[in-house]
Amino acid sequence: MQLHILASGSTGNAVLIEMGERKILIDAGISARRIERGLSEVGIQLSNLDGVLITHEHSDHIKGIEVLVRRHHLPVYARPATWEAMPGRDKIPREYRRDMGDSLDIGAIKVVPFAISHDAVDPVGFCFYYQQQKWVLATDLGIVTPSVEDALAYADVAILESNHDVEMLQAGPYPQFLKQRIKSTLGHLSNHDAGQILARIPRQRVMQVFLAHLSQKNNLPLLAERTVREVLQASGCAVGEEIILHRTYPDSTISLVK
Fold it and tell me: How many angstroms separate the Cα of 233 from the Cα of each of 221, 229, 230?
């Protein structure tokens, strides 16, 4: 089992998971060339992918999808409303556009999408179940809803949004309307909020957590990790034992092999 976060952040997102014989790309928010190069560097060829899952229609999640499908003829799964709202969807041949319902089986992997609070038409996160493992991707969260808490509960691996530091955002260069959007219930999760959700959910004995979708203007990888660690430690969690934190980056690959 492998996880490769090729890119994570406001400039683009792409994640590869491999469970057993199946390989799934989640989002294609960077160029097809970057995805091809990133996968090649970890020994994976795009022609061997079993499909692409799309969380929502924003450009930092779909930027490379058209070229990717045209070059490699991959099936792409998204919610029906997401397909309707997706820019350039008509450039993707209909035979590769698949509607995603309440669950999806890709080989022995069960994929279960769950609703998230974000300013897209029908945004989702994903739970991946394989054998005794549960892996979760939950980013672009304005707030943590009960469905998000249920999804994260007892996860072995979680890719969780830790988008911004509240003070950096408030003092930063963004116009006020954009700051309000980010802080809203349809925006993005702060470092502190990420720590709080991790502190309160029921967990496995060990949980690997990748702090993801960091703002390049309003956050720093070290700051995100430090803030989440402090919140967890204040709750009595033994960081490094019960929860192992990992940083992610917009321009380099972070991997986990189990």
Answer: 18, 6, 5
